[in-house]
Each structure stands twice: as structure tokens, then as C-alpha cells.
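Posting this for the archive.
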Amino acid sequence: MRQLMNLKQSQLIVKPRDYNGTLDVPSSKSAANRILILACTVDEPVVVSNIPLSHDVENLINCLRKVGLNIEREGNSLTVTNSFPKCERKLSSPLVLETGDGGTTTRFLIPFLALGQETYIVEPEGRMKERPIEDLAVTLKNLGVAVSLGEKGWMSIQGPFGEIPKSLVVNAEKTTQHITALSLALRKSDIEPENMKYSTSYWEMTKDLINKFNGGQREFVVPVDFSSMSYPLALGAVLGSVHVKNCLEVDNFQADAILIEVLKQMNHQVSLASDGLRVKRTESPETIDFDCANCPDLVPTLAFLCSKIEGDSKLKNIDVLKYKESDRLKEIIHLLDLYKIKNSYDESADVLTITGQRAAQLESFELTPPIDHRIVMISYLFLRANGGGSLTNGHCVSKSFGNFFEVIDCDS
């Protein structure tokens, strides 16, 4: 925590150098937050191990405790011993829940809270207040939940549902998190997506976990996070090599696991064995033409990789990046322009073309990215693979990869 506080107040100096790293990566906050919500809806104790070092997960745990859940911690494992709404406390006034800037934290909580009868005020921070939420609010209102936006705090919620639906169709055009949030809270209802375009693997993850809970499973191990792992994998592919010790299998429910196949397509050396995942750079990387609809969080990493491959690479279906913790599409283009990497974005076709170059840009930069963990981490990669410099807002990596700067500097 001391390191994160220092990062919040100062610049991180990044020196250009090769990378030959051996490390462990965090577990998946996406899986962890889904499991936590489901664990709080069953009567039996649920044990969850390999909890990630993530502010999104910690914020969710804190909010769940405030509404009456008993969550016992021991190391990186926890046990949920009661359930909501049975544990709900009688309130004399609305309870304010501060959810941070995480989409899974904020959105997953909203239908879950509607299972109860008390009034809750959800207060996120940062850009989360601007991200799409109206569709979820309208759906809850149609199901009998009292929901108001902007009247008392960011969102006020008072349940219960008028009637738990046996089946429901939910528009998933803008985000899959709304349908996931409803499905987690109403895990025995048949909920189907409509117009789903992005992140379909995360929807499959949701359905798989619901089936496991409905089937009686009560012990879970959170898998490693392939989104977090993408940054050291990309750095190893560009600057040398990397060995991720705690990645022993591919989790196909995580969309960003596709990076392993993409690295192979780029001609990098990739091997997965009993001692972990290894990636080594190739002297002749190949360009890609890749549909990013199912893995939008991977786009910043892919853009970095493509910037180091001579020739034209294309990243398709990336418009959703505009609505993340920052406008990630704008920030990616800014980095490419800064490092003189030729690029063009065709808005009508929703395609970013990147004409990469192997040679490093030797100029040093002072980068001040927005408070967005993925843009901060990819900014570090650009600095290290080129002329180095300094980086601010390093503290926000705690959202998903709290010890990122520690492990990324532990070269073997």
C-alpha cells in the first residue's frame, strides 16, 4: 500500500531495457466478483480461494459487508457464511455504498441490492458515473424495483422485485455487464441476451458459474487473470522473454486468453507446460487482422504489440473502448501518434490500422495518462520499449494488478 500511495504522489521513472521476466500474475477480478455475488445468494457457506489483489474486488467485499454479509478472510481466501436478503438489516435512513470506478463492482451490486427491501444509494466515482447504466435502471423499474438516477446520490435502489421473472430478455448491445448483473441476482431465472456484440466470453463465464452454483458447488478457486497477464506477455514478446509461473492452463471463459493464440499468429514463441506459460520474442513478427469484439480490454496491449511489427495490422470492432474508464481509443491513438507510429481509424468500419516499426523511438517522454489502469500499464510498456521517461498516475493499477510495477521490474 505504501508503494501505491507513493505512486499517487510522484512520477515513476522508466528506463528503456530488455525484459526477461519470471513472475506470478493476479487472479481474475471478473471471475472473483461474479463468484462473490453468487456466494451471497445461497444459504450454505461458500469458500473462495485465490482472491486477487484488486480494488474492484475489495470495494465489492466492503459493500457486501455493509449490507449484512459475513465474509471471513484468511490470507487470499475467504468464506461467505450467510446470504442476502436474509441478512438484510433494518435501516433508519438510506445506506450509501461507495463502489469505486469499477463496472463489475457497481453494476453487479445494483440488481443484487434489489433483492432486499431497504433503500440503498450507490455512489461510484470517476468515469463510472458517465458509463451506460440507464438500460439496467429501466429493466429494474419494469420488474417493480424503485430506482432513481440523480435524485438522491448517483442511484437510489429499493426492492424487492415485484415478481421474480421466470424468463427475461435483456439488451446487451452496449455492455454484457447489465445482463450479467441481472443473471447473478436472479440466478434461477432464464435470462437471455439480445443484440450481444461485445465480450461474449464473459457472458459464457457468467452462465458457467451460475450453473455451478445452481448445481450445488460451494468451493471455488479464482483463475489467473489473462487481462493482467497480457502486459508482461507483450513486454516479453517485444523485449525478450517472460515466464508466468502460475499460468498452468488456458481459461477459455476469459476472452483475453485469446492473446496466446494471437501471439502464435504473430510468430512469437509460446509454450504452456507444467511449470507455467513462456513467451519469447521472434525476429520476424507478423502482422494481424483481428476482430476485437469479444476482447475489448485486450486492445491496448494488441496496439502496443502491433506498433512493433513492420507492416499494417488491423484491429476491428473497437468502438466500445470509448466508454471504458477513459476513452481508450483516443488514448491509444495518442500514444501511437506520440511515438510516431503511423495509424488511422476508420470510424464507419470501426477499424484501427497500425503501421508498426521494429526500431525504438529513442526520445524520452513524460507521460500523464488518465486514471485508467489499462492505459497506465500500456503507457509503461511504450516507455520501456522505446526511449524511457516518466509515468504518473501509477497508483491506479491497483484496480486490477496492484503489484504490477513490482513484478514487471523483477527480471530474471
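The CA atoms of residues 138 and 147 lie 8 Å apart. The longest helix spans residues 200-214.
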